[in-house]
Amino acid sequence: MINFSKLAGYKKEDVRNLLLILQEFVIVYRDNKVKINYQSRPVVLFLGTLVSTFGLGIIFILRSLIHKYNEIRLNNKQRRPDLIRQSSTILKNGSREIFIPNGKGKNGTSRIIIPKPNLDQYAADKYLYKNFVIDQKLKQQKNILNSKFLNQLIIIWRILIPKFYSKNTSLLLSQCFFLILRTWLSLLVAKLDGQIVKNLIGANGRKFARDLIYWLLIAFPASYTNAAIKYLTNRLSLSFRTNLIRYIHDMYLDQVMAYYKISFNDSQLQILNIDQYITNDVTKFCDSICGLFSSMGKPLIDIVFFAVYLRDNLGTGAIVGIFANYFLTAWLLKFNTPSFGKLSAKKTHLEGQYYNQHLNLITNCEEIGFYKGSVIEKSKLYETFQNLTNHISKEIKVSFNYSILEDYILKYTWSAWGYIFAGLPVFLDDIWPKHNDLDDTSSVDSSNSLESNKPAKVNERQNMRQFIINKRLMLSLADAGSRLMYSIKDVSELTGYTDRVFNLLTNLHLAHSPTFNYGSKLGINDIHGTIQRNYVEGIRYEDIPVIIPTIEGSENEKLIEGLNFQVKQNKNLLILGSNGCGKTSIARIIAGLWPVYSGLLSKPSDEDIFYLPQKTYFTNGNLRDQIIYPHNYDEMIEMGYNDDHLYHILREVKLDYLLNREGNFNVRKDWKDVFSGGEKQRISIARVLFKNPKFVILDESTNAVSTDVEDYLFELLQKKKITFITLSHRPLLMKYHDFILEIKNENGDSSDWKFHDLTSEENLKSIDNEINEISKKLSKVKEWESRKDDVELYLDGKYDDIEESAIELPSDSIPLLN
Ligand SMILES: Nc1ncnc2c1ncn2[C@@H]1O[C@H](COP(=O)(O)OP(=O)(O)OP(=O)(O)O)[C@@H](O)[C@H]1O
């Protein structure tokens, strides 16, 4: 036999002693073998959690496999990755199908279905938002059920959970289930805690070991429940946000063009930095409401559970005492709570301003660079940042005093109160009424029983156990109460976010209202004009005043008095006038951006008319997207076009070198910085050629291209039979047009206008005369040029004898020579 003791260098006695100890351990274990009751709650809960986790895991794996199978099937059907990436198809049920890159492989995409906008719901909701302010004024009495916040929340709730049988309801119910489960588990843990301490004091190793095992087993469902609550809170918040954002996007980006009109509403409800509202406030609102649900839901459930349980142990008097304390302190706290809602709403607003200032800097970095405007931009940034920091430091100061009071009351006073009530049954053992004995062994393990043969010791241990349980429950109750109190601050913050989100929704509904009056203080009957859509003849203005929509409404100063003109197909119109006289405003009215305050506007369908704004807009995307804007690739394919057609268009506007330079249409760049001024305008004309509308409005769309290219582009449009309405201040463009609408602003007030028919006999004659005049002047210039040397000598004073009349300079032709 190997002598281990020698090998290890230990003495024989040491080894023997060790073996003896081990042997003793085995004997103790055999005699006091820990008996685990497999029907006890900790074991059942542990196994239940294990089985349900396993089951859920299998369901998720199956779901993802089915999902993957569908993806592969779809990808096989539409093999073109480019098409899949950009596709946005309307399905039969009206929902939109889009594919977004999922980062898996080069061409990996995920299919996303965006449900059809529920226009009926939006129409029905309109009255809730529109009438809210009026309703609030009518309901004068102030009580908790009639608070502005609750009413706003109830209205928004319809968007968060539109119908009972929905994903969000199941998420919410699951969360409720886990919240209750957590409270129940806390109760079990409290009892187990008491039992472990009791076993420790009683030196009962067997039971101590058993309860420790139970403790570890119950820890699994308890941790699982905590994680599940966090998970569900985040999922619910994301889901709420998705619902809200879809609602907002549907309202914000539709035919009504709320994204443009909303800025005009400078009434009481005006919102600045709407992007901030949509991107930031909605998120914070959803996080806040979901966080509040768990942060308030759990303490509420806890309070009910623990109060009922403690009432059994301590008696009704104690519970009344505890709650009296809670209510008193809650009132004290509420009384001293600063308006965190308003503070956080203002902070969000200031954060938005600071963010926008930065955004403005990046967007216009080139222009600012040319102007060397970094100093002024820095001071502006600093100013907005300073406003923000001032506000935050105010918020910190306000919170400081509140935190002292809050901590003192919630952490220390309540715990002390808890100790007192937990200690009462121990100290006043004789006089304290005996309630339900806490040795409810069945709650943790039905096999646990009292050791009745040692009454004195048992009583001591029993007291200890009872104290531990009561203390734990009291502290949990205090904790639940304090968390409920802490959430007063969260509620206050939520009121701020709710108000902002509600304001955003109200503004969207206002912009959608047929009586939207662009914030006019005059009332709803301000806009009386009539719009005739789908007018096949062309565009007709009948006695329409051009007015900037402001708070003054129709009483605002008119840019142009009652305007009358008509454009028919293939008869091009030039609207001529100085800067700021209101040319673009005429187009704004046709496009529906500005209202028709009075008169009649007839216009073709949106399909037949296209607008080229003064500043060309470039979308985020590839070269192809710039040409086909506002269509997408999928629509282009549906229209029967392909990249060859786009190349042909680029050739027509003399931009084919762009494709040769960039390589292909899929190149993505920041195009607004890449294209030169003239290229931008030619891309605009390429858009017209792609769209091929009947009418196009060109707002100074060729002023950056050279004269020869300008000639060419107008001829191209004429060749394509696209009728154009050109807005410009250059009379030179007259040659491509049949009519001129001349806007004269001589006295600085509203402009007069005059309509000229360039095709009429009289005008043709006057044009002939003008051409003759110009020809005469030209011949004089030519003569002058032929005698250039003589002129120079004359100007140098060398040929005094030359007759002045012989070198008479045609004064108005000098600019031509220059
Ligand atoms: N949203 C607005 N709020 C206030 N004033 C505005 C608004 N939009 C335009 N204006 C004013 O209306 C007037 C007409 O503007 P408009 O853009 O129609 O001029 P325009 O004739 O096209 O000028 P330009 O030749 O310089 O492009 C200008 O004085 C402009 O400042």
UniProtKB/TrEMBL annotation:
Record-linked Pfam families: ABC_membrane_2, ABC_tran
GO molecular function list: ABC-type transporter activity; ATP binding; ATP hydrolysis activity; long-chain fatty acid transmembrane transporter activity
GO biological process, alphabetically ordered: ATP transport; fatty acid beta-oxidation; fatty-acyl-CoA transport; long-chain fatty acid catabolic process; long-chain fatty acid import into peroxisome; peroxisome organization; very long-chain fatty acid catabolic process
Cross-referenced SUPFAM superfamilies: ABC transporter transmembrane region (SSF90123), P-loop containing nucleoside triphosphate hydrolases (SSF52540)
ABC transporter domain sequence ranges: 539-771
Top-level taxon: Eukaryota
Cellular component terms (Gene Ontology): ATP-binding cassette (ABC) transporter complex; peroxisomal membrane
Transmembrane segments: 43-66, 171-192, 212-232, 314-333
Keyword check for Membrane: yes
Keyword annotations from UniProtKB, A to Z: ATP-binding, Membrane, Nucleotide-binding, Transmembrane, Transmembrane helix, Transport
Keyword Iron: no
Coiled-coil parts of chain: none
Gene3D superfamilies, per the entry: ABC transporter type 1, transmembrane domain, P-loop containing nucleotide triphosphate hydrolases
Family classification: Belongs to the ABC transporter superfamily. ABCD family. Peroxisomal fatty acyl CoA transporter (TC 3.A.1.203) subfamily.
The name this protein goes by in its record: ABC transporter domain-containing protein
